């Protein structure tokens, strides 16, 4: 059974997709202290002769983590080394759907641009996030060389038997988005930078919450485990992220995503989104603050 290395916390669909394809997901746990990014040592340790794919997601959903160019080059060196020895068919699957939504001065870098492993990288992207074309379900992948051509042809054969093709009238919009909308994307990115700063300021004032500053996307992955063992005003016992999220929704009408499904450190965390107006963000985090301060032991 072929293995796929997945750094966790990770997007919830990775594991079931791997398992549906007959593979085995090998989760590599990262934590807040390391910024929820995979280290070269961790990657090297988890590659075996059965390893077929390494999944990377930068910027990351759910953590907001983002690899620097130097970090990705270091991971690429491990991949190159492993491909020449223990795992000759190794491929990197790089999910870069949030590439345009960077929140700090760190530039986005695609690991597929590292020449030494370029023909081992499949880059996945789409229009849903940076271009706000969520409902149209437009995505694409790219690979280099003979491998890239073979992969594209295989995907076409599979897709042709499932949903045939992208809806034709959306294709002109794709062209306009990619060619003519850079200014709009940058304006949206700057809005997310402002909202990320606002979210962090408000979160920092709430007792018992911790998180690494998001570097990309529009999420904060907040550790709420300091409040495990407490009870909400309505009598809900808080013993997990799901308990925390459920009580917060029922008692303050604020929705967050429990972290358990993301794996790894998610068993202590909830995911917050700041993809909303400043006013809604202020109100939502004010309600979160009231909820946390109302918990009793």
Topology:
Blueprint: E1 3-8, H1 14-20, E2 24-29, H2 40-46, E3 51-57, H3 69-83, E4 91-95, E5 121-126, E6 139-142, H4 145-160, H5 171-180, H6 182-204, E7 219-223, E8 230-231, E9 237-238, H7 241-252, E10 257-258, E11 269-273, H8 278-294
Parallel strand pairs: 1-2, 1-3, 3-4, 4-5
Antiparallel strand pairs: 5-6, 7-11, 8-9, 10-11
Helix pairs in contact: 6-8
Q: Would you kindly provide a written description of the structure presented here, covering whatever features stand out?
A:
This protein has 297 residues and is an alpha/beta fold. The chain folds into two domains: 169 residues, Type I PLP-dependent aspartate aminotransferase-like (Major domain) (Aspartate Aminotransferase, domain 2); 112 residues, Aspartate Aminotransferase, domain 1 (Alpha-Beta Complex), CATH 3.90.1150. It has a six-stranded mixed sheet with strand order 2-1-3-4-5-6, sandwiched between helices. A three-stranded antiparallel sheet has the order 7-11-10, covered by helices on one side. Strands 8-9 form a two-stranded antiparallel sheet. It is globular, with a radius of gyration of 20 Å. The N and C termini lie far apart (47 Å).
